[in-house]
TrEMBL record:
Protein name: Glycosyl transferase family 2
Keywords, comma-separated and alphabetical: Transferase
Source lineage: Bacteria, Pseudomonadati, Spirochaetota, Spirochaetia, Spirochaetales
InterPro entries, A to Z: Glyco_trans_2-like, Nucleotide-diphossugar_trans
Transmembrane segments: none
Signal peptide: none
GO molecular function: hexosyltransferase activity
Protein's organism: Treponema succinifaciens (strain ATCC 33096 / DSM 2489 / 6091)
Residue span(s) of domain Glycosyltransferase 2-like: 4-111
SUPFAM superfamilies assigned: Nucleotide-diphospho-sugar transferases (SSF53448)
Domain of life the protein comes from: Bacteria
Length: 306
């Protein structure tokens, strides 16, 4: 059984399409939990209509609102009971074999935290285009992950109950995003695996290219130059990492403790010391992204409080 967690807010334009794509999955052993964050449009009415059609869909109507997607999804996670969990964004569209392929690729024998991340098609509904090949951020170690301010993409994730239980075991202050916390747990205590297949349409809007996605090398170069005002370290991500480390440090093994400490101390170093500490380290912007990180440090300021 797979639990699917769908957080909604004023999604009347998209919600029917997304829920329909879930209902029509070739893998049918799932439970869809939906929680709304105080929508003022017809989202809730549409959800209730779906619950009357399919007993696998549960609407959690508890009146609690967050107006924060990270806290919203973490609230939803509390209702998950199954061995496998997926997040779903209200405005995407799943290909009919998404759950099937992720279920088949998932290591269900491991008792350690395990995270599987798929790929997607970039779907721009405003100019009616689909980009057939994009790359979500990919990292294979803690060093490759910590500087990815955008983290890994929640709607591409499937993870096991071992990972979920750790996420719910403590209240991590300064929560940045739900998927960022899930990623941190996987890289610290478990394993991350990537599935290269494009399994869903990821909706993008004009002038809004996600930090999670790299279309090609030229796109990355343009983005790093265009966004020079954005710092190397995004303060909310840094604060989330710091809180996570403080809460879990007694359970983190020594090699990874050193990685966290090296990352967290960089903010207080002067520019030259900081640059050389990163230059001669294994820190990277995802797989094979060490040079990208160095370039970023040359072109941008390191830290911003906002």
């Amino acid at each position: 059984m797979i639990d699917i967690l769908l957080a909604t807010y004023n999604g009347e334009k998209y919600i029917d399409t997304q829920i329909s794509s879930i209902v029509n999955q070739s893998y049918s052993a799932w439970k869809l939990y939906i929680h709304d964050d105080g929508s003022s449009d017809s989202t809730v009415e549409k959800i209730k209509l779906w619950t009357s059609r399919d007993s696998r869909i549960a609407f959690i109507d508890d009146g609690i609102t967050f107006h924060n997607p990270g806290m919203h999804f973490m609230h939803l996670l509390k209702f998950s009971k199954s061995e496998l969990v997926c997040f779903a964004d209200q405005d995407d569209l799943w290909l009919e074999y998404k759950l099937q392929r992720m279920f088949e690729s998932f290591d269900r024998q491991t008792k350690n935290p395990y995270l599987l991340v798929s790929n997607c098609y970039l779907w721009n509904t405003e100019n009616k285009t689909i980009i057939p090949k994009v790359n979500f951020n990919q990292a294979y170690s803690l060093e490759e992950f910590l500087f990815l301010n955008g983290g890994l993409q929640g709607c591409a994730m499937m993870f096991n109950s071992e990972l979920r239980n750790i996420a719910l075991s403590r209240n991590v202050e300064n929560l940045y995003m739900h998927d960022y916390l899930i990623s941190l747990i996987a890289f610290t205590f478990g394993k991350v695996k990537y599935l290269s297949e494009n399994l869903f349409l990821y909706r993008q809007y004009e002038n809004n290219v996600s930090v999670h996605i790299e279309i090609n090398k030229n796109h990355y170069r343009k983005r790093i130059l265009r966004n020079r005002k954005i710092p190397v370290v995004f303060a909310p991500a840094y604060k989330n990492i710091m809180s996570f480390y403080q809460i879990f440090k007694n359970e983190i093994d020594e090699p990874k403790k050193k990685v966290f400490k090296r990352y967290l101390e960089l903010k207080d170093k002067n520019l030259i010391v900081r640059f050389f500490k990163v230059f001669f380290s294994k820190f990277s912007l995802g797989k094979n992204g060490h040079n990208k990180l160095v370039l970023k440090m040359i072109l941008r300021k390191f830290w911003s409080k906002s």
